[in-house]
Amino acid sequence: MPVGSEPLLLLCGLGTDEECWRDQTATLGGKALVAQGDTVAAMAADVLAQAPPRFALAGHSMGGYIALAIIQAAPERVTRLALLNSNAVADDDAQRKTRQRIIAMVEAEGLDPLIGLLPGLVSPDPAVQERMAAMLQRVGPARIIREYRACMTRPDRRAMLGTIAGPTLVIGSEDDVIVSPHLSREMAEGIPGAEFIMLPQGGHMSIMACADRVTDLLRAWMDRPQAAA
Q1: Per residue in 23-43, is it b (16+ CB within 10 Å) or e — as a string?
Q2: CB atoms within 10 A of CB 82
Q3: 71 close to 164: Cβ distance less than 8 angstroms
Q4: Nearest to residue 203, comparing CAs of 81, 113, 119?
Q5: Do 86 and 184 form a contact (C-beta atoms < 8 A)?
Q6: Are 198 and 7 in contact (CB under 8 A)?
Q7: Contact (CB, 8 A) for 222 and 56
Q8: How far is the C-alpha of 227 from the C-alpha of 229, rounded, in Å?
Q9: pTM > 0.90: yes or no
Q10: pLDDT in tens, 86-139
Q11: Scanning 67, 85, 126, 209, which has its CA 20 to 30 A from the CA of 119?
């Protein structure tokens, strides 16, 4: 059954679609969204254009980057925030070069090499890997390339973390090899009053690999009262 009195938006990460949030929406309600745009800022604007006036916001991975951009652009519209397997730090030179290599690979060879690589990096769970591979196939190379470029050029958001208000939940995974666990922790420490949960396992796709646990955490987050004005 849906929880909370606020509309809930759940933002998808790079290379995923609405199916990645299926376990959470089945229990909590809400709407999973794939943001459109060539930059993270454009994706944030796309979400804001279709969102209700005020809403609870959860973002996984790249969805977390978009969520922070939304908070910066329209903080008055977000009632509460959850960031999962994400971080507030811009790519460094090594990360940008890795993304450029992946873009070049997809442009030259299509999605098959990426499908052979990425699912195994995001989770050790074969069932999660299978779901991830299927999503990559549905998403297609054009969107993959666009999202890698958007992530590669996103700004550092650490300076704005202290301005975030409302109930905030940050979830990381000890075995996440895409977003280092210390970056999730650092982000949580920068947000006043944020609740931080580090899952012992779950890889990068904790929303699928630890679906029941993540859903319970999101339910409790949705039920947390707003601070008194």
Answers
A1: bbbebbebebbbbebebbbeb
A2: 28
A3: yes
A4: 119
A5: yes
A6: no
A7: yes
A8: 6
A9: yes
A10: 999 999 999 999 999 999 999 999 999 999 999 999 999 999 999 999 999 999
A11: 67
- The two structure tokens encoding residue 175: 């075995």
pLDDT digits (tens, 9 = 90+) for 167-215: 999 999 999 999 999 999 999 999 999 999 999 999 999 999 999 999 9
Tokens matching residue 74:
């329209």
Q: Which domains does the chain have, with CATH numbers?
A: 8-90+157-223 (3.40.50.1820), 93-148 (no CATH)
